Structure formats: structure tokens, C-alpha cells
Amino acid sequence: MILMQFAKRITPVQAAFVGSLLLSLAAILTNPTLNRDGILYVETAHNFLQGGFDAARKTFQWPFFPILMAIVSKFTGIGLE
Predict the structure, then answer these.
(1) Which residues span the domain enclosing 76?
(2) For labeling, which of 3, 14, 70, 80 is most exposed (least CB within 10 Å)?
């Protein structure tokens, strides 16, 4: 009964948002490891921090997202992983 009342009050956008949060939480809790792309991005970001753009470019042809990761990591102190 309470679930039906809740379902009538929630909009489709709100339901999608809550569903997305629940799926993200489930993904984080069940599989915290990086996939192959993630490992490549972290390695490229690390190479950028150590050797600049050319070092990042040697690791990955499109290093722009890993460079953004490296910059955010450097300024916030959050690890690359």
C-alpha cells in the first residue's frame, strides 16, 4: 500500500534518478576494480604527471580525458584510481 502511494507521487524523472543512484551504488559495492579502459586512463594520467603531454600521448592517442583526470588529481589530492 505504501509503495503504491509512493509510486503515484514520483515522476518518471525522479524514478530514473533514484534508479540510477541505486545501480551506481550496486556497481561500486560489488565490483570496485578498474576495467581495461580505466587502467589505460590511469596509466596515461600518471604518465602525463611524470612526463607531460608527449608522455601521455605515447600511452594513448586521445589523452585529453586522462589529462583532465591528472589535473583534477593534482589540484584536489584525490588519487588517480
Answers:
(1) 33-81
(2) 3
